[in-house]
Each structure stands twice: as C-alpha cells, then as structure tokens.
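Entry for the shared binder. Reason: the reviewer on the internal report wants the predicted structure included alongside the sequence.
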Amino acid sequence: MISQEQSFTTEKLVKLMQFAVKENAFFRFKAEGYSMFPFIQDGDLIMLSPVGSHSFIFGKVAVFLNPGLNKLVVHRVIGRSKGCYILKGDATNCIDGLIPIENILGVVTEINRRGKTISFGFGYGGILAAFLNKSRVIFLFFRCWKILPRHLRNFIKSKILL
C-alpha cells in the first residue's frame, strides 16, 4: 500500500479514481474546501469505494465529476430525478444540478480526521444529514457558524467536532 502524499490535476485524479473503482479497489484522498462542513472538513482523508458495492440512496456522500465545472466534487445525495441524482454540499445553498450516474465515481465510506475515524453522517446519520441539507438547516447552521467569534469556534471544534 502506498502511503505517500502526491498532488494531481483533476484529469489525472479522475483517471486514477476510475481505475481504482474499476478494479473494485478503495481510493483515499485529502478533502479540500468546506462545502461538506461539518461532516467533512478541509484536510480530512476520505475513503472512496466503488459505486457497485453501495446503492445510491438518500443521504449517501458521493464523489463525482461535475459536468459543468469539470472538477471533482464530494457532496451528499439528496434526491433523484429523470434518471439522474441530485447532490448538494451540506454547507452550500445550491444543488449541483442533475448528475448522471456515469459522472459518479464512488461513495465515501470512511473519513479520517487527525488520525480518528469519523462515523456521523453514515447510515441513519447520513439520512438525517440529507434531510437537514435538503431543508437548508445545515446551510443556516454554517452561516451562523461563520459569524461566531473565532475563540468560540475553536472551543466547539476542540470539544465537539474533534
């Protein structure tokens, strides 16, 4: 198992992920950004598993190539329409549009934050998070989070969010 960190272009990363899931292998990479906060945070290690081993249901977190932006995105499945999936970041206001299954590279099956495995957001927690996401509660939480003084955010992070 290779455990060194490397940077890749989106195109090369997509090809590596596609190869890994085609071979029914797992793929681990580092999250960048805050669109899935608090479930996934900037710098978390994410484990991607092949789509075939998981059904896409409400609440799953998927890694996909956004066709409009041509970039990799990690967002939650919040619905289905016209044979495509509707995905949205927990901390974003807008959906990603209708994402065809062929653009979905896999599902997130593990999150590691500073050496600890994060379990909330999978199973029933994922369904709850998807409901809160769809109803915009998580987005409103994120907006309130941004206006909290830094010392309060740091305290909450250290005591609650790891």
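Summary line for the report: Residues 10-159 form a domain with the Umud Fragment, subunit A fold (CATH 2.10.109.10).
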